[in-house]
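User: Here's a chain of 390 residues. Predict its fold as tokens.
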Amino acid sequence: MRRRRSRNRDEASSFGQVFAKLARLAVGIIVLLALAEWGAGFAMGKIRQNRGAATPSLSDQDIARLYDTDNPALYRAVLAEGDQLDEAVYSPLVEYRLPQRAGRHFTIAADGYRGNGSLQDLGGPGAKVFVFGGSTTFGTGVPDGETLPAYLGEVLRAAGKEVEVFNFGAPSYYSSQERIALERLLTNGIRPHVAVFVDGLADFQSCQLPDRTAWSDRLSQATQVAARLPLTAELANRSNLLALSRWLMGDEPAEAPNRTALCSSDAEVDKVIRRLDTNRRIIAALAEKLGFKAVFVQQPVPTFHYDNSKRPLPVKTELLAHHMNSAKGYPRMAEMRAAGQLLTDNTLWLAEVEPAEGNAYVDTVHYSPRFNRALAEVIGRHILDASLLP
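Assistant: Prediction complete.
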């Protein structure tokens, strides 16, 4: 009997030792995985922060020529901060927006508009102009005070108008998102005196209809993960360690997908044009019913009318190839406009406008400070001549 009890105690002791070792091993693995996940998260943050910009590595001489400046250090800082903008976050109905930011050259308010170098208040006194558009309106590559909306404010105030111009431009936004963004402001009781829409480039970025945004695929994937995939798959989807492993194997960090799909036919081009024109007509009807004015701008693009050989730095052919839809769409729009098939009331065809001197584009498609000012002067003159402001 004693031997049996001793054997049982020995077996229990051996089992306890094995269990303790396994428990220590499991804890060690969990700690190592946690540290590895933290380290991978830090590494992926740096990778995303330092991901390549649309503008290649530039010398001070290059920047001086692109920006017509004798202070290239300023714009080098602007480009560096622009590359480090936080990723977009979810926003109801429009799907995404840039998050609030208080940077040196890029300021984004909680209400979604980019600053213009001075304090702004949507609820403040005086007339208000809202400017909607994509990355060219937002002002990719230029500081707060040198965007198209910032210069438009200067033009209007120089004419004696007490007005505040708000920059609601957002990268990759096109006419459908801009219409919805305006509607969200209106239903929230925020109404402009004038709403300006600068469009053309992003509308032709994709021939996909019905509408899809730069985040549609990402949101669809996220909802499928939440609704259908098991917990292990969802954890794997969120793992920085696995993301780092994929990057080391050659995959890029997940960003907003490339929406560019070349229009395969004239019929697809016409559908994109009809979408843009329909959005404009809906906005015009809203403006008439709700008591504000709407101005529509057909923006310049480098694939229509512009002589790209004038650039101080050559642009890569493959980068311009992403914008061949506008090369097809703009001539077609010009034909339809001449035939009276498109909205023309308060619609400015600025596709041929460019700066009188100096450079027009700081990268493939984004406007230089000089070009932003030139466009602001034309738009501002229209607003003043048509007496659209009180």
